[in-house]
Amino acid sequence: MRFFSDNAASVHPRLLEALVEANVQDTAYDGDGLTARLNGAFSDLFETEVEALWVATGTAANSLALAAMCQPHQGVICHKEAHIEQDEAGAPGFFTGGAKLMLLDGPGAKLSPETVEAHCAAIRDDVHQVQPAVVSITNASEYGMVYRPDEVAELSAVCKARGLGLHMDGARFANAVGTLGCAPADLTWKAGVDALSFGFVKNGGMSAEALIFFDRELAADTHYRRKRAGHLQSKGRYLAAQILAMLDHDLWLDNARAANAGAQIIANAARDRLLYPVEANEVFIKLSADEAAKLRGLGFDFYDWGEGQARLVTSWNQSADDIRPLADAINAL
Amino acid sequence: MRFFSDNAASVHPRLLEALVEANVQDTAYDGDGLTARLNGAFSDLFETEVEALWVATGTAANSLALAAMCQPHQGVICHKEAHIEQDEAGAPGFFTGGAKLMLLDGPGAKLSPETVEAHCAAIRDDVHQVQPAVVSITNASEYGMVYRPDEVAELSAVCKARGLGLHMDGARFANAVGTLGCAPADLTWKAGVDALSFGFVKNGGMSAEALIFFDRELAADTHYRRKRAGHLQSKGRYLAAQILAMLDHDLWLDNARAANAGAQIIANAARDRLLYPVEANEVFIKLSADEAAKLRGLGFDFYDWGEGQARLVTSWNQSADDIRPLADAINAL
Amino acid sequence: MRFFSDNAASVHPRLLEALVEANVQDTAYDGDGLTARLNGAFSDLFETEVEALWVATGTAANSLALAAMCQPHQGVICHKEAHIEQDEAGAPGFFTGGAKLMLLDGPGAKLSPETVEAHCAAIRDDVHQVQPAVVSITNASEYGMVYRPDEVAELSAVCKARGLGLHMDGARFANAVGTLGCAPADLTWKAGVDALSFGFVKNGGMSAEALIFFDRELAADTHYRRKRAGHLQSKGRYLAAQILAMLDHDLWLDNARAANAGAQIIANAARDRLLYPVEANEVFIKLSADEAAKLRGLGFDFYDWGEGQARLVTSWNQSADDIRPLADAINAL
Amino acid sequence: MRFFSDNAASVHPRLLEALVEANVQDTAYDGDGLTARLNGAFSDLFETEVEALWVATGTAANSLALAAMCQPHQGVICHKEAHIEQDEAGAPGFFTGGAKLMLLDGPGAKLSPETVEAHCAAIRDDVHQVQPAVVSITNASEYGMVYRPDEVAELSAVCKARGLGLHMDGARFANAVGTLGCAPADLTWKAGVDALSFGFVKNGGMSAEALIFFDRELAADTHYRRKRAGHLQSKGRYLAAQILAMLDHDLWLDNARAANAGAQIIANAARDRLLYPVEANEVFIKLSADEAAKLRGLGFDFYDWGEGQARLVTSWNQSADDIRPLADAINAL
Fold first, then answer.
1. For B6, phi and psi rounded to 5 degrees?
2. Residue of D73, D221, D225 with shortest CB distance to B228
3. B311 and B231 together in one domain
4. Which residue of A has its CA nearest to B2?
5. Residue C311: domain span
6. DSSP string, D286-322
7. Chain C residues lying within 8 Å of A63, measured CB to CB
8. Is residue D268 part of a domain?
9. Which of A28, A100, C79, C271 lies at a CB distance of 3.0 to 4.6 Å from B7, suitable for a disulfide?
10. How many CB atoms lie within 10 A of CB D194?
11. Contacts of C147 (CB under 8 A, 6+ apart)
12. Per-residue tens of pLDDT for chain B, all 333 residues
């Protein structure tokens, strides 16, 4: 059983069914009937008028959002462990035309209002220094922790006072909502988020993520940038079909809750080893090289995460029965 | 019956079956077993060692190829009607960091060795003028004409003499091969092509194209650029699955031949109206506004192509019986 | 006597004197007392509030202006013989982040309202095609012809109707004003120009041009872009000193008129050979290879300008006596 | 007396004289006789064949050097207090097409071989992470400390083992050489430096810096990039004249030694307050707000450098008599 990555999991069968259903002639690019339903579906989900664009990857969603909010000569404040800094090969620099990522520290890969404010305050207001334009947070964070609505709102207050936009990388937004039990609106626009990368691929999807603009003015140029980046697929309706299947009957939430529940099983077994509170579908634990070898010997795969640490990720399709053996094995170490 | 675009056609069922078969856990990004088979499959097809990368769109394939062959301060020679100039929203400028497209003329959207040579000769060899680094041709061309292997080789000779790379936009490469009946090798590396955007989406595919490097040194940095452009999908195996299904038993060629055959039916009916020889799956004809209205009244859809002209595109899934009514209607005008 | 280029001429002594006068300690970058006087000096000259930035080259001035008016995914309409297309090594693509130059034709390197309107009308309003954002004209043009205020206003009317900005490359703006005898205001903001690259270097300057924003909102980000492009000189006061010396007692206009007068002497001698009306300090003439050799044998240098043509440029420091021998030699051919 | 910045100082009179001498007609851009002498002059100075390009600013020199050594998808390792990170408005990101600056720590704004090696070792060798391509060090550093030849060589050894280029920002290279008393060759190419931004403006220059390529292959494309960035001045001979005047009879070294000597006078007076060893022309001292106010009350200007700290910079034209009053005032605090 592999706990490497939720990207390694299979696709939920309902999405494959949706592809088959979508397999008729329709208008190319984003002129089709399925894509036409996205704005409405997301506006319903978020209880406000939003503009939604499909893209194939979270990297593209994040970078398009940042490019909409940040000029080439400006900066993006994010955590030094943020995915946009660590794992996107410099994509934000590419899409923005060279904007700088400004890296802050903080436990659990989370930003605090204080560190953001202190960073901004330390920048001289002159043309020699890059001025920040946007803050990007990841929810759930890269260490599987969530920002609660009030935490987002406090960050947003700093942003608004400084004239900065607020972007949320929601590669695991579903997991965060699943844990918090809040309305998606509470965690986003009501807390001041301007744009959300709403991830589906790690959550049982195949090749479609959604970029949601709560500030819809940001969307206009993004349509051009998406095409210019080669992300306007000519048969976009097959991406829309996946997303609509995810939204249908809250499949996205069911999948996330299943993955979260799996993580809790591991967390309970590894209570003394936890490096971070487990608030999504990732479990970071202390694990010696010997222990890691022992687990691997039993057939469990996962990432080493630096010296004496490991990352275990659960997926939408792993049942309690799938995960129990790992929990037992950890208990038995 | 719609003759708007081969992008509007449905996906071949075998690709959907391949997605279902691929729907098991595997390594993320391009570390999976299906992706691992691509280089071999294309090397077999092209009878030489190639490196192949999946991407979601032809625009991405073209732009990544050009970025591998052209520095930001250099230029790309192409036809003024080339897709990269007309329909990609400036993507080549984005991926290359601002390289200039140098636009040449020529019948049927085809370049000739003479115009390329003349263009190069007119550029002063100094730092004030952008120097070309690559020639990009489209085969089949934007007007449905093909370059034969000897034509490609003649262009390549000019390129080699000038130190330029040669890229082929093969959004309809399958249609060209189907018409020419040549080996894919003859039309590409044996004729001097360094990189090929091998299109599948217009030919019954869903969301996967292949970027083929005959000059494999060009591929190394492209892996980074693909990721940086947000085009390294985390479940890339579903793209590989589509492509492998296309290559299996030459489905790509069957599909293209079917579409080409449909175009010939129309061409025969419209012999006196043809604006260009019909050598792929596109038919450009003279058609008055009245005639166009008449055809539309009968349920046929297509693009107006400037004053008194129309573009009709056939697809892999249109049978002779599907197309005959259009041919008859044109005959009856 | 060299008629190659006004760039080859020496610097007016008053500018060197101004450098000596400026040679005291002052605040670095653009915080000095001389730079502080620029906005006022140009506002006086143009009879409206403008914002003025010094830069070292016309290429930088043009590109910074275009970057202020054009997003990376948009386009700049210009003449196919425009300096920004022909002689700036792709600088507009660099500064704008990859925007496309859209090349129009027209006699004397001048754009007409009709060609601009026709070009815009032919662009589909969809994301596949690059949309224009700005028109750039050169006054005096690359062939030494001027736009009159009413011509600029007619172009501006097209721009305004289409939502496009209007930039004027004024590398030889002084020569145009000298010829037209109009107020600088009439040729610029009163005729709808948003930004002007006001050239001094070809006109007796050394290393300082001015970028003038009539639409002052465009200036704000330009301060950042200038620094980011390495064009904010730390001893900027020596650039400001040059420009102020140029504006003092209309030295810029005297210099331009001197150069223009020289061109008229040649034009009179070469009346039957003229390729374009001589409206600035450039004379383009028919000249056979034999004739060119003959002139060169007499010590006159100039550019061949394609087959059987030559370009002769006069400078601020060439007197009638300096030029008469060339005129006589042409007469004697 | 101002101790704000060496950028605020005046220009050495010999440079102004050189401008006057250069004030004759010559070929435009970099085709003139003075520019033609630069490669030879610097090759003599560095005792090896180098290629030298003038540019107007250190920011341009640094960024052009980095662009020659780093692809857009790669990274530049530098100190977190490096000028390229702190004071160039994101210029490296602009010139490189979005490359990432990778920020390391270390006393006195100096990098150590250990931190560079550790940083490189921590980067996964996969496409998700930006790979470094070049290390940039500043000598003398932003805190007025020097790298000795052996320190540079040790850094270079790490670079070579990792396949990284080595760039030296020498805005105060003259001050470093002045302090070390070594040959320029020892501090640069003999210690493994590939490219040097050789600063003159802070050292009595006006508007000309030199970019020196020891690896001359890096220079070829840089000629295009310089033009494309608007940094190829049409009257470049006036920049070459400044630089040649600086090299003549080692004026650059005399100026630097004068400034360094001034800094030592202050350092001696402020021995108990020094934050860093004084090895160039910058003195960083502990200074309370009250003490700062007292010094300012006496007519001395300088930068506050964070809480309770100050930066004092001496210039080429400040004699011991000029500086003594400040030293005395500090002593008297």
1. -70, -10
2. D73
3. no
4. A25
5. 251-331
6. E--HHHHHHHHHTT-B-EE-STTEEEEE--TT--HHH
7. none
8. yes
9. A28
10. 25
11. C110, C137, C139, C141, C155, C176, C187
12. 789 888 889 999 999 999 999 999 899 999 999 999 999 999 999 999 999 999 999 999 999 999 999 999 999 999 999 999 999 999 999 999 999 999 999 999 999 999 999 999 999 999 999 999 999 999 999 999 999 999 999 999 999 999 999 999 999 999 999 999 999 999 999 999 999 999 999 999 999 999 999 999 999 999 999 999 999 999 999 999 999 999 999 999 999 999 999 999 999 999 999 999 999 999 999 999 999 999 999 999 999 998 899 999 999 999 999 999 999 999 999
C143 part of a folded domain: yes
* 8 Å CB contact between C109 and C305: no
Q: Which backbone phi and psi does B21 adopt, to 5 degrees? A: -65, -35
Whether D243 maps to a domain, the answer reads yes
Whether residues C158 and C245 share a domain: the answer is yes
Distance to chain A for B196, nearest Cα, Å: 16
Q: Which of D250, D280, D296 is the last residue of a domain?
A: D250
- What's the predicted TM-score (pTM) here? 0.97
Type of residue at D330: I
One domain for residues D26 and D126: yes
**Token pair 């691509």 in the structure block, residue:** B38
According to DSSP, the β-strands at D209-213 and D195-198 are antiparallel
Q: What is the CATH number of the domain that holds C173?
A: 3.40.640.10
Q: In sequence order, what E strands does chain B have?
A: 51-55, 74-79, 100-104, 131-138, 165-170, 195-198, 209-213, 282-286, 303-304, 309-313
Interface check C232 vs D, CB under 8 A: yes
Of B225, B250, B275, the one marking the end of a domain is B250
Q: What are the beta bridge partners of residue A138?
A: A169
Round to whole Å and give the CA distance between B74 and B97: 10
Residues of chain D with pLDDT under 70: none
C-alpha–C-alpha distance, residues C47 and C193, integer Å = 14
Instruction: Inform me whether the C-beta atom of residue C97 falls under 8 Å from chain B C-beta atoms.
Output: yes
What is the C-alpha separation between C36 and C236, in angstroms, rounded?
Answer: 11
Interchain CB distance below 8 Å, A98 and D93: yes
Q: Which residue has the tokens 């990098």?
A: D111
Tell me if A233 and B57 make a contact (CB, 8 A cut-off).
yes
Contact A25 B11 (CB under 8 A): no
Cβ–Cβ < 8 Å for D281, D174: no
DSSP assigned state of B130: P
Interface test with B, best of D73, D126, D222 (most B CBs within 10 A): D73
Nearest CA in chain B to D131: B224
- Cβ-contact D275, D284 below 8 angstroms: yes
| CATH code for the domain of B295 | 3.90.1150.10
If asked whether residues D136 and D180 sit together in one domain, one would say yes
Residues C155 and C266 in one domain: no
State the Cα angle at B211 between B206 and B215, rounded to 5°: 165
Peptide bond into D140 cis (omega under 30): yes
Query: Cβ contact (<8 Å) for D228 and C94?
Result: yes
Q: Which amino acid is at C299?
A: G
Query: The tokens of B8 are what?
Result: 């509007």
Whole-angstrom Cα distance, residue B26 to residue B241? 12
Q: Inspect the interface and report whether the beta carbons of C73 and A221 lie closer than 8 Å.
A: yes
For chain A, how big is the Rg over CA atoms in Å?
20
Give me the amino acid identity at C127: V
Tally of domains within chain A = 2
Strands B74-79 and C51-55: unpaired
Cα torsion angle, D67, D73, D76, D82, sign: positive
Q: Does B283 share its domain with B178? A: no
From CA A206, how far away is CA C107, in angstroms rounded?
56
D160 touches chain C (CB under 8 A): no
Whether A8 is in a domain gets the answer: no
Q: Distance of alpha carbon A268 from its chain centroid, rounded? A: 25
- Residues A294 and A232 grouped into a single domain: no
